[in-house]
Description:
Mean pLDDT: 77
Strand order of the largest sheet: 5-6-4-1-7-8-9-12-11-10
Bound molecules: GDP-alpha-D-glucose
Helix content: 25-40%
Number of helices: 20
Largest sheet: 10 strands, mixed
Amino acid sequence: MREPDDAASGQVQSPDDQAAAPDRDEAGRERADYGAYSLVLVASRLPVDRTESSAGEASWRPSPGGLVTALEPVMRSSGGVWIGWSGDAGPAPGPFKAGGLHLVGIGLSPEEIRDYYEGFCNATLWPLYHDVIAPPRFHRRWWDSYVAVNRYFAEEADRQAGPGATVWVHDYQLQLVPQMLRERRGDVRIGYFTHIPFPGYEIFAQLPWRRRIVEGLLGADLLGFQRRSDAANFLRACRRAAGLMTRGATVRVLASGPGEGGYSLRVPASRAERGDRAGLPAGMREIRAAAFPISVDSAELGEIVQRAEVRARAKEIRQVLGQPDLVLLGVDRLDYTKGILHRLRAYGELLSEGRLGSRVVLVQVASPTRERVEAYRALRDEVELTVSRINGLYGELGYPPIHYLHQSYPREEMAALYLAADVMLVTPLRDGMNLVAKEYVACRDDEAGALVLSEFAGAADELGGAFLVNPHDIEGLKDAIVRAATITPQEARRRMRAMRRRVRDHDVAHWAASFRDMLARDTSARDPLAGDPLAGDPLAGDPLAGDPLAGDPLAGDPLAGDPLADEVLAGDSPARGSLAGDPQNPWPGGGSGLSRGHLGSRSPSSQNGGERHGLHGQAPQQVPDGPRQGQAGRGPGDRRSLPRGRGPGRADRRRDPPGR
Length: 660
Ligand code: GDG
């Protein structure tokens, strides 16, 4: 199970430490049976995908994506072990090493993939936690499978964790693991980070197993969320779903023995049990919930975009697009949370109104994801129908106004796309953070380009230089796109500089270090929070009561307006470029249309007061098969790579590229 060199690499406690500890733990188990690793990462997926050659030979290749990109450097430098599912049905791959990482695979049966992964994770929790953009489905069989699979992960973490190890559990697929592990091991520090939003209580309360989820999470010592509002929502759920009292960012529970169903919290019954601000009474644990906004490796992205071939590729991309005046870009997993349909609708209307001129293209990378889940299949149909309609209505021979790519690409290609785009469209209806927004900023070392960003993405709390939008407000979205497309280079630089500073200073290393530092701190030594620690929340446990956290200092303001917007609106910007005199002009109408900075009249802003379109409150509609972009018999995504000079190229087709 263990690499022989692990002990030598300093991952385990020294023999002296081990000798000093009693031989058996409280449960009478021999400590010698504990695992070897001082850092154990538990995530739904491994950072590698299993591939098979034509000869049937299996190998592993990196599976890039938000979580993997963020955590790989941490794991590499710490020598810890990564526990996760390989993404395929079948027995556990067991411990192995790939790309310098120690990995332990969890095996799932086809039924568990159906009920736990596609069911409870992707069709219950995902839509519920994203504000019921699609209706969540509740099935007891799925829940049972979720409990069983979470137990596999907890058992494996127990096997791998050395005495006093740190165990870092990730994301909504594994919310029961902290408590399941806590029951087995009192000696480990457990951190949990959720990458997606934690919903408001009125939504969370729909979950029939809400108390069990809260209890599961409270097995951790530290719970990390993307936004302060997510942390506040969780604390609210502690009060209402579990009847616990919270004090500032903390909640105290009694460490009890296994209860009904294997684990359960005991709510402190009295002041004496609860303790006071001076310290924790014996048998009590204090859990902290706080925001740790995740980020990207901005230094690495900065290095990638410095490469001559990436810069050349960015130029080439603009060339193969026909040297447009304006390139808009969207990069998303093809997920209904990402607001792709709203974006397409806004773009289609802008084309019909001529507000972006005639020399504009939108490149939309929609990476394949969760293709076996019905809502995702329906969304794909609807997106592809919409793309086809827009291309059919506004395209001409050799000019599709949308380049739609249902494929995955290497990081270098993504970086070149970011460099090539004048305006990046990140318009999710709900998103924990959205790394694409930060990647775009990190790649723009030329300080050019503009970001249109949904206020419902966690990144909106940090990227004040973006054009913040409500993606449900199609008129507002259109106005923001036009504004972003017409700012002066000076204004673009000012905005981009501010955003780049933020992403550089708060990169992924900063995120990981601040989480681990906080986790390592002794809870009882933390600053007591202002206010009477024992002042009970009069509404605790009452699911129908109003929000006792109104004005909660933890709750960030997700709707904070764009601080720079007024300035930009104040003056019409001059043109950034003009195509006049271009003899090779391949564009419809033969002319340049309106050059940037003169992109038609501005429509009245947001007059419809938030008209809702598309997916809100309903499942993506199943639409009849329409003509696809491309030719009959070859759907998007069938092509593994495009020849250089013909398109973004070098596609890297994966079932679920961002490890989700
Ligand atoms: C969850 C939360 C949170 C996409 N296509 C390709 C590709 N990607 C990469 C992007 C980016 C990542 O995948 C996607 O990250 P996001 O943040 O947009 O979204 P989720 O997958 O939904 O992730 C999210 C994140 O966790 C981290 O905490 O931000 O809110 O939902 O890195 O670049 N990468 C490559 N080829 C592709 O075709 N190489």
